[in-house]
């Protein structure tokens, strides 16, 4: 009885590790100008999305500015503007922590494009909006909480 | 088929401020139709590429979390008035669209 339970647990843990490894394997490390693999967009949790992007633990940074409303009345349209003050920014990713699929969009910059992006996102519930910036092979993160009064992910 | 995309590119100092408005329903695939109760199939833009005079400046990946009729703003340093900006997108159903504008 007990040993069966052990095996089931082991099996489940094993499968999870393989899935993460496969997802991570799709991203070539050191790629300076790249968009996250589709598996990252399908990831159902913040941790899964970050590991699929190949950035499990970015450093906190004060040089990333997230301009978003403190309170968004309509979660279907939340304007978000991200400015990276970090020199040599090559990519910015936007994640909404409590969305069904947290990774909203990511942007790779090249040829004079500045570390700036402005867009509108959907948010299912009040949560942190995270901006993950890649610069010089390192990753940085900043977060801002946006309160949502009406969720915008339908359902 | 896709409706037209709007691009506005203006010079602000030595930086081109480029704003793009795409026409797209951006269905996540998680929303239920209010009348039928059925899930609305996913239909969203998956990638966007912007070029300046033919050279890629921005490559974006998107999920269903981007709002309907996506807006995208970005800045390119060292651009000049008269430069050509081209934006292309592809969606998860194989639809695509492209538009061009001149930096003014």
**How many helices of chain A does DSSP assign?**
3
CATH homologous superfamily classification of chain B: Immunoglobulins
Main beta-sheet annotation of chain B: 4 strands, antiparallel
Strand content of chain B: over 45%
Rounded Rg of chain A: 17 Å
Describe this protein's structure:
The complex is a heterodimer of chains A (155) and B (104). Chain A is of the alpha+beta class and 155 residues long. In chain A, 23% of the residues lie in helices and 39% in strands. Chain A has 3 helices and 9 strands; from the N terminus they run αααβββββββββ. The radius of gyration of chain A is 17 Å and the shape is globular. Chain A starts with a helix and ends in a 5-residue tail after the last strand. Chain B has a single domain, classed as Sandwich (Immunoglobulin-like). Chain B has no helices and 7 strands. In chain B, the strands form 2 sheets. A 4-stranded antiparallel beta sheet of chain B has the order 4-3-6-7, with no helix packed on it. A 3-stranded antiparallel beta sheet of chain B has the order 1-2-5, with no helix packed on it. In chain B, a hairpin with a 2-residue loop joins strand 1 (6-12) and strand 2 (15-21). The two termini of chain B are 29 Å apart. The interface between A and B is large, with 40 and 35 residues. Strand 6 of chain A pairs antiparallel with strand 4 (55-62) of chain B, so a sheet runs across the interface.
SSE order and pairing:
The complex is a heterodimer of chains A (155) and B (104).
Chain A (H helix, E strand, L loop, with lengths): L1 H24 L12 H5 L3 H7 L6 E2 L3 E4 L3 E4 L3 E7 L4 E8 L6 E7 L6 E6 L5 E9 L2 E13 L5
Parallel strand pairs in A: 1-9, 3-9
Antiparallel strand pairs in A: 2-4, 4-7, 5-6, 5-8, 8-9
Chain B lengths: L5 E7 L2 E7 L23 E8 L2 E8 L8 E7 L6 E8 L4 E7 L2
Antiparallel strand pairs in B: 1-2, 2-5, 3-4, 3-6, 6-7
């Amino acid at each position: 009885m007990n040993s069966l339970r052990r095996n089931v647990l082991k099996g489940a843990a094993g499968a999870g590790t393989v899935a993460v490894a496969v997802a991570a394997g799709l991203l070539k490390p050191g790629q300076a100008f790249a968009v996250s693999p589709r598996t990252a967009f399908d990831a159902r949790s913040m941790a899964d999305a970050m590991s699929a992007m190949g950035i499990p633990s970015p450093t906190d940074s004060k040089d990333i500015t997230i301009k978003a409303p403190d309170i968004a009345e309509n979660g279907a349209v939340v304007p978000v503007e991200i400015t990276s003050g970090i020199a040599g920014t090559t990519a910015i990713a936007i994640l909404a922590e409590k969305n069904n699929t947290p990774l909203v969009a990511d942007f790779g910059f090249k040829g004079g494009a500045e570390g700036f992006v402005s867009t509108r996102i959907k948010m299912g519930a009040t949560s942190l909006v995270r901006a993950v910036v890649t610069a010089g092979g390192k990753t940085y993160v900043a977060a801002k909480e946006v309160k949502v009064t009406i969720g915008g992910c339908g359902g | 088929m896709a409706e037209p995309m709007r691009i506005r590119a203006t010079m602000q100092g030595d930086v081109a401020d480029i704003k793009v408005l795409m026409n797209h329903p951006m269905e996540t695939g998680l929303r239920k139709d209010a009348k039928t109760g059925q899930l609305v199939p996913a239909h969203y833009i998956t990638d966007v590429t912007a070029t300046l005079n033919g050279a890629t400046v921005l490559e974006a990946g998107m999920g269903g979390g981007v709002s309907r009729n996506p807006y995208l703003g970005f800045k390119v340093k060292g651009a000049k008035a008269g430069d050509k900006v081209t934006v292309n997108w592809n969606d998860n159903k194989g639809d695509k669209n492209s538009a061009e504008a001149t930096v003014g």
